Amino acid sequence: MLINEQAYHTIWYNNENKCVVIIDQRKLPFSFETIELKDIKEAWHAIQDMAVRGAPLIGVTGAYGMYLGITNLDPSELTLDKINKLGDYLKSSRPTAVNLEIIIDELIANLQACEPQSWEKEALVFAEKIKQREIDYCSSIGDHGLKLIEEIAATKPGETINILTHCNAGWLACIDWGTATAPIYKAHQKGIDIHVWVDETRPRNQGAKLTAWELLHNHVPHTIVPDNTGGHLMQHGMVDLVIVGSDRTTRAGDVANKIGTYLKALAANDNNVPFFVALPSTTFDFNISDGVRDIPIEQRDENEVKYMEGIASNKLVNALIMPEDSKAANYGFDVTPARLVTGLITERGICEANETAISEKFKDLMS
Ligand code: MRU
């Protein structure tokens, strides 16, 4: 998608410098900077510290991180045991987005099918391949979600379609298009009159900082709202559709996404507003059914809650916004039970959030 009218991906391999380049999302929207990752530790830190974030991008960074890890191995260390250790190390960076473990396990399975001398080359080929696969998945999610928006538009000729989203499930969270934003971008490109309500998404403000920034650069009308505003908007008929992303969705359709998603789903349910979750197949965890019980929820540093970053007098400052001695809790994600989800928008089409519907679409991936 566009940054200053130029097309970008969030991650790419620089063959000349033999490194992986990422957009440093910690710096947005105040400055646009890239970072070169040269070893697996740098990839681990980029994920853990959220220079890259969002489930699909975390997964693809994991694949490139494995390549960087293998590149720096001594030939005597090219053993399956060592590769598994590299994988476990990267998986320990963040626990909730299942894409990371799915993609690392897929990469390791691929390597097992070839000789250790070719692992370095194969790992890079794999990372480039799954990067393109995630782009294709997101584009298909956009095509399927576009149909939903077109159906709503047909019921309100001449009126704006208002879509609410939470956190950043945009192209910055993926490689291109985004998941929740893919139908939005496709609808906008088709000339449908849409407007996006962007939840600010405390504590890291991914909505206000990232979703707003990417929508702005791609010319999509939007308004940032404090996190608690969605219910009010829905009560007043100001939201036609909610679309959010996911970090892990169970085989029964329970959805883990950024903290606060569950409250939006409750409000949507109470106000008969359709609540859709957009996700690629790499975000399903087919091994579990009960999301509240079984999805690991990341807890991050309390200082992310206690301090807020912004510009003051032309300088970037990190301001304390509560009594310093009070404790703060920082749960990264919550789980929206399947019963509150109207449907899942996937690269294979839209399906209901229940085990029967999911297994009809993804039989080949479920054991
Ligand atoms: O903590 P983050 O910023 O990595 O959380 C991101 C989200 O919750 C997204 O909604 C999710 O990863 C889906 S991204 C397409």
* End-to-end gap: 36 Å
How many individual domains? 2
Shape: globular
Helix content: 25-40%
Please trace the helix and strand order, writing H or E for each element. EEEEEHHHHHEHEHEHEEEHEEHHEEEEEH
In the predicted model, the low-confidence regions spanning at least 5 consecutive residues are: none
CATH superfamily of the largest domain: Translation initiation factor eif-2b, domain 2
> What is the name of the CATH topology of the largest domain?
Rossmann fold
Number of strands: 18
The CATH architecture of the largest domain comes to 3-Layer(aba) Sandwich
Q: Overall mean pLDDT score? A: 98
Q: Any overview of this molecule?
A:
It is a single chain. With 367 residues, the protein is α/β, with parallel strands linked by helices. The chain has two domains: 2-133, Four Helix Bundle (Hemerythrin (Met), subunit A) (Up-down Bundle); 141-366, 3-Layer(aba) Sandwich (Rossmann fold), CATH 3.40.50.10470. Helices cover 39% and strands 20% of the residues. It has twelve helices and 18 strands. The strands form five sheets. A seven-stranded mixed beta sheet has the order 8-7-6-9-12-17-18, sandwiched between helices. The protein has a four-stranded mixed beta sheet with strand order 13-10-11-16, with helices on one face. Strands 3-4-5 form a three-stranded antiparallel beta sheet, with helices on one face. The structure holds 5-S-methyl-1-O-phosphono-5-thio-D-ribulose (MRU).
